[in-house]
Each structure stands twice: as C-alpha cells, then as structure tokens.
Amino acid sequence: MSSPKLQQYLELSKIHRNIAFRMGATKSYEFSVKENKLAAVAKALGHPARIAILQLLAKRQTCVCGDIVDELPLSQSTVSQHLKELKEAGLITGEIEGAKVCYCIDATEWKAAQAVLNQLFETFKGGSKCC
User: Fold this and answer.
1) Where are the alpha helices (DSSP H) in the chain?
2) Whose CA is closest to 54, among 35, 34, 71?
3) φ and ψ at 63, to 5 degrees?
4) CATH of domain 47-119
5) Which of 41, 55, 100, 106 has its CB 3.0 to 4.6 Å from that of 113, i.e. a possible disulfide?
6) Average pLDDT over residues 57-72
C-alpha cells in the first residue's frame, strides 16, 4: 500500500487537507502535484467575490477584513468564507493584529499560481484545424 501514487496523495493531503477531503471521490491522488495545485488555484479563482477580494488586495497591498466587507456587497461571514478559500489555496495570508485580521497576497504563491496558469495556457499552440 505504499505505492508512489499513494505517497503523493498523502503529501498532497498534508498541503491541501481540505481540498483532498472534498475531492476524495474524484481520485485526486491519481494526478500530479502540479495538476492538483492548478485545480486548487482555479477553484479559488472560480468565484467573482474572490476575484474582487484579490483585486482589492493587489491594489491596496494589505487589507483588514472589515475593509473588505465595506467594499463588497456581502456579509462579513460570507467575506470570511471567501477569505478562507483563498487562504487554503495559498494565494493570501492573514495576520492577526489585535482584534483584527490583516490580509495580503502571498507573493511567492501568487507567482507560483501565475506560472502554473501560464504553463496551462501556453500548452495550446492554436491552429486553423481546431474543431
């Protein structure tokens, strides 16, 4: 039971515990770490509220959760849920400052996400004989 694919799955589950749990029935361990990372990033980018949060954080460099709530037409609990998804994907970090949490984009993960997205889009070479 210690196949390389199982070992890969166990490693992924340490990194992305929540994602591995949700995707258990889809056999995420059958895919590469890169494919699982790309799926996690795509999932995080898959909601307009999360895109708006990322745009806000990119523009302001840092933001307190309450400031994000003031900018979006969503409740505080909904914004917190979206922030949680972005944190789980590794795109943002949150630092406790007194009674508030200050969020910012994780520059290293941001660049890694950009790289895997670019690699995906660069695999298509285009051509006139496409369906």
Assistant:
1) 4-15, 17-22, 33-44, 48-60, 65-71, 76-88, 107-122
2) 71
3) -160, 140
4) 1.10.10.10
5) 41
6) 88
In angstroms, the CA 20 to CA 12 distance is: 7
Distance, in Å, from the CA atom of 14 to the CA atom of 9, rounded to the nearest integer, reads: 9
Q: Tens digits of per-residue pLDDT, 66-103?
A: 889 999 999 999 999 999 999 999 999 998 888 888 99
Which residues lie closer than 8 Å to 101 by C-beta, 6 or more apart?
A: 64, 65, 94, 95
Query: Which pairs with CB-CB distance under 8 Å and at least 24 residues apart come from 92-99?
Result: 92/53, 92/54, 92/57, 97/64
Backbone torsion region of residue 51, taken as left when φ is above 0, otherwise alpha when ψ lies between -120 and 50, otherwise beta: alpha
